[in-house]
Amino acid sequence: MKDYYKILGVEKGAGKEEVKRAYRKLAHQHHPDKKGGDEAKFKEINEAYYVLGDDSRRAQYDQTGRTSFGGGGGPQSGFDFEDIWRQFGGAQGGARGGDFADIFGDIFGFGGGGQRQKRGADIAVDIELPFAEAAFGTNRKISLRKTNACKECDGSGAKSGTGTVRCEICNGSGTVRENRRSMFGSFTALSECSRCHGKGEMPKEPCPQCRGEGIMRSEETIEIAVPAGIDNGEMIRVTGAGEAVAGGRAGDLYVRIHVRPDPRFHREGMNLISDVEIPFTDAALGTEKVLETLDGKVKMEIPAGTNSGDMLRIRARGIPKAHGRGDLLIRVTVRTPKKLSRKARELMDELRREGI
Questions:
Q1: Helices then strands, each counted (H, E), the chain
Q2: 3-state secondary structure of 312
Q3: Residues 153 and 216 sit within 8 Å (Cβ to Cβ)
Q4: Do residues 24 and 17 touch, judged by C-beta distance below 8 A?
Q5: Is the separation of the CB atoms in 276 and 285 below 8 Å?
Q6: What global pTM score does this model have?
Q7: What does the alpha-carbon distance between residue 215 and residue 209 come to, in Å, rounded to a whole number?
Q8: Angle, to 10 degrees, between the axis of helix 39-52 and the axis of helix 16-30?
Q9: Rounded to an integer, what distance in angstroms lies between the CA atom of residue 252 and that of residue 188?
Q10: Residue 161, by phi and psi: left (phi above 0), alpha (psi -120 to 50) or beta?
Q11: Alpha carbon distance 228, 236 (integer Å)
Q12: What is d(CA 195, CA 169) in angstroms, rounded to the nearest whole number?
């Protein structure tokens, strides 16, 4: 008896989506038309999904370890892939046809979901920002040489004032159909029209700048809005600012931020930590210090009796956030003298006798 769960590499309690993902992965891997494909393994994988992908067949299999196929035979008798396709909705996409249509579309280039729109490649760039600019936000301009929509024809590929006409090859659909046969039966494969690149229309006269392609490589300057409070390593996504593609939409631009460290501050979330060192006498008696912040210098009172490691808070002087700002935390280090004059030693002895 075949263990269909083991064949798909899923646990017995796996949900339908998990079973579907496992099947999709294995079908891609073992399809006979792919390099290194295995037809026998591919049939076994489809057999397993035929059973586990359907609630009633799966329930019967879980109870008895067997299931009937088509005319009542077990897995060893009469397993028919064309029958599978028909029962899952066939090329017309019946009530249960969506799963197999989508999966077959991934493998063969067709299916019930129609042709997917083309999309240009994404672009990733890195920029470095000073600590304060990352904290308060800024705008940065980035110059990229990439594929863009032609400015002369606005991406239409047509010479200015001439317009476009319907593509004669695909009759304006942007796709061409091709009948194919496979072990699953006959299918209609959709592919992009090579004449109009999926647009469904052709320029009456090609644009002289891009030669009718609608796209061309050029230099473009893009202004990036860096939000306040962005942290080191975070990404900014600019939709549609990636590579353009004929007959589809442009990819995206991803900007990775590198924040230059500031020796005065250490960031923890929306708060900043700054270190200050004071002598023993200031810690004992209290003092006033001028401290650095992102907004300039401020005076802060250090209370008497401050210990080394104490944190003092200056509110709303940290990293800006949606509502308000984080705080600036001052970490105090008390400096203990290593050498004392004779008079200082006498005074310290006196303090020690008083239990201070």
A1: 9, 15
A2: strand
A3: no
A4: no
A5: no
A6: 0.61
A7: 9
A8: 170
A9: 32
A10: left
A11: 12
A12: 7
Instruction: Please choose, from the candidates 245, 112, 248, the residue with its C-alpha nearest in 3D space to the C-alpha of residue 190.
Output: 112
99 is written with which tokens? 């799963």
Compute the distance between CA of residue 22 and CA of residue 31 in angstroms, rounded to an integer: 14
Q: Could you report the average pLDDT of every consecutive run of 10 residues in the chain (356 residues)? A: 88 88 86 75 87 86 68 40 45 44 51 61 96 96 95 90 89 82 63 82 91 92 95 95 90 96 95 96 94 95 95 96 90 91 87 80
Distance, CA of 173 to CA of 65 (rounded, Å): 48
CB 229 within 8 A of CB 133: no
Instruction: Work out the burial of residue 174: count CB atoms within 10 Å of its CB; fewer than 13 is exposed, 13-18 middle, 19 or more buried.
Output: buried
HSE on the CB side for 313, CA within 13 Å?
6
CA separation for the pair 15, 286 (Å, rounded): 66
**Which string of DSSP letters, residue by residue, matches 205-265?**
SB-TTTTTSSEEEEEEEEEEEEPTT--TT-EEEETT-S---TTSB---EEEEEEEPP-TT-
Which residue has 């959709």 as its token pair? 190
Burial 189-202 (b: 16+ CB within 10 A, else e): bbebbeebbbbbbb
List helix spans (H) across the chain: 4-8, 16-30, 39-52, 55-64, 81-87, 97-108, 131-136, 280-285, 342-353
Q: How is 67-94 classified by DSSP, letter by letter?
A: --BTTTB-TTS---HHHHHHHTTGGG--
Look up residue 187 and give its two tokens: 């299918």
